[in-house]
Amino acid sequence: MSAAEATERSEPSGGGGGGEIAYVSYGGEHHLPLVMSLVDEELSEPYSIFTYRYFVYLWPQLTFLAFDPKDGKCVGTVVCKMGEHRGAFRGYIAMLVVLKPYRGRGIATELVTRSIRVMMESGCEEVTLEAEVTNRGALALYGRLGFIRAKRLYRYYLNGVDAFRLKLLFPRPDPGMHPMMMLGNERDDQHMDSPYL
Ligand SMILES: CC(C)(COP(=O)(O)OP(=O)(O)OC[C@H]1O[C@@H](n2cnc3c(N)ncnc32)[C@H](O)[C@@H]1OP(=O)(O)O)[C@@H](O)C(=O)NCCC(=O)NCCS
């Protein structure tokens, strides 16, 4: 993608540090090498091209890329899926990466929030992912977004490190309450604070 193309959908990154970042959802085969090189560079798990294709072909609306409009460089990506799992419709965040010089500006937060918003609009009841127990940055980021540590998975990764399974549960509407009655009460205030609405 050219810098001009990226700038078309440019929006503030939402973080400090200045500069605008352009966010786009997966747009086709030309985005695939960008996603792959970012993930291969930064994540400990090796993935085959079939794994990438599985995600981006089936759920293109859940993969987002972040571009620096100055030079058109792809600086971050999130890759996800959703589907039935043990009776629940569930979103899953498979990969999240932001290039080092661009970290701490809210780019990962924006990428993840966009995916979660689509999951929520698609009827997901929860979102899960795994993160290395040593990955303080990712654990802090997801903690801020409301994820809880649901389980510890022993030696989950090929490098032998344990994982935390993190889970975000979406608030369900109270079936006994008329929607108008929700307005102004404590539950509704929490709802309004949700970064996904
Ligand atoms: C984890 C990662 C995606 C975060 O990207 P980022 O764009 O810097 O994240 P954000 O700027 O949106 O951070 C949001 C919040 O997460 C927390 N956070 C992010 N990185 C952190 C770090 N290294 N140490 C502590 N907290 C961190 C902070 O609370 C931060 O908010 P603050 O800047 O207001 O304090 C990035 O560090 C990365 O690509 N790491 C390598 C790949 C990886 O670990 N992916 C996650 C796999 S589960």
CATH architecture: 3-Layer(aba) Sandwich
Structural class: alpha+beta
> Compounds present?
coenzyme A
Order of helices and strands: HEEHHEEEHEHEEHH
Pick out the low-confidence regions. Answer: 1-18, 179-192
Q: How much of the residues is beta strand, in percent? A: 25-35%
What's the CATH H-level superfamily name?
Answer: Gcn5-related N-acetyltransferase (GNAT)
> Can you list the strand order of the major beta sheet?
1-2-3-4-5-6-8-7
What's the pLDDT, averaged over the residues? 85
General shape: globular
Number of domains: 1
CATH top level class name: Alpha Beta
DSSP helix fraction: 25-40%
GO molecular function, one term: protein-N-terminal amino-acid acetyltransferase activity
Organism: Oryza punctata (Red rice)
Pfam families: Acetyltransf_1 (PF00583)
Protein name: N-acetyltransferase domain-containing protein
